[in-house]
Amino acid sequence: MAIVYRCRHCKMKLAELDEYKVDIKALGWDRLSAADYQEMVQIDSGNIVCQVACEDCEDTLQRYPHYHELDHFMQ
């Protein structure tokens, strides 16, 4: 099982970590609220997938803040 970081907007895979070599507390997940954890962290095909924003999508959201209102701004 691996920990996969994926962009919640464009779905690009950003990183993959071997779960057995990573301390979850070192990733900062213990500081997430229960609602944020549930929204960001899912199990998919036996892997732990953490939904984050990649640099390109984050830049786009900063340039066009009204995109936050949309369910999906990437097509």
Verbal overview:
With 75 residues, the protein is α+β, with helices and mostly antiparallel strands. Helices cover 21% and strands 29% of the residues. It has helices at 34-40, 55-63; strands at residues 2-7, 13-18, 41-44, 47-52. The protein has a four-stranded mixed β-sheet with strand order 2-1-4-3. A hairpin with a 5-residue loop joins strand 1 (2-7) and strand 2 (13-18). The radius of gyration is 13 Å and the shape is globular.
Short descriptors:
single chain; 75 residues; alpha+beta; four-stranded mixed beta sheet; 2 helices; 21% helix
> What spatial form do the alpha-carbon principal axes imply?
globular
Distance linking N and C termini = 30 Å
Largest sheet: 4 strands, mixed
- Series of H and E elements: EEHEEH
Whole-angstrom Rg = 13 Å
Q: How many DSSP H or I helices?
A: 2
Q: What is the mean pLDDT? A: 88
- Widest β-sheet, arrangement of strands: 2-1-4-3
Approximate strand percentage:
25-35%
